[in-house]
Amino acid sequence: MDTAKIRFDVARMARPSLEEVLAYSNSDVVYRFQKTYGVTREQSEDIFVQVRKWLWLSHQHRLAGFENGLFIDKPLIVIDEMWHNFVLFTTEYFAFCRKYFGYYIHHAPATEAEDREGSEKYGALAPDERIRVRKEQLRPQYEFIYDHLGKETLAKWYLEYPKIFSFRRLAEMQLQAANEKLAEVRREAMAA
To answer: In whole angstroms, what is the distance from residue 147 CA to residue 162 CA?
Structure first.
């Protein structure tokens, strides 16, 4: 089923405040992300706050009548990874979505056809031109983030997070955390 084509009855949708959504907490989601990536508890909690902001913002986008969802691009990779982490807690994620939004917010990655289309559309462009075109396409999203969450969140998502949590850096962090866990298991096995 193509979830992008589902029509929502906006008049019947829940309308939670951002504060209500941010009041939700789940220490298991925070802990699993911390353990998986080797980040501090504070970093993991902050990233989980940003995911709840993203989900609230996605709901606001739907309430505003937009049929196409917001787009997680490369600068938002850490938010995407935490969202994956949250979705793994299926019961909790489903309950969260139902309570605050009245429906399940699906996470739909790019399809093979969409990736191919993007390569065909942008592959021939010079790198600088590709960046310019992409920024122009995302301008409405940047404006929506700015208008609903403010300058600080926009800066955190698109300036601060990419410096700390690039795709490569997240992969390195995940590998380091896994290696540390493996070393711990080996020590325990040798001690037994």
So the answer is: 21
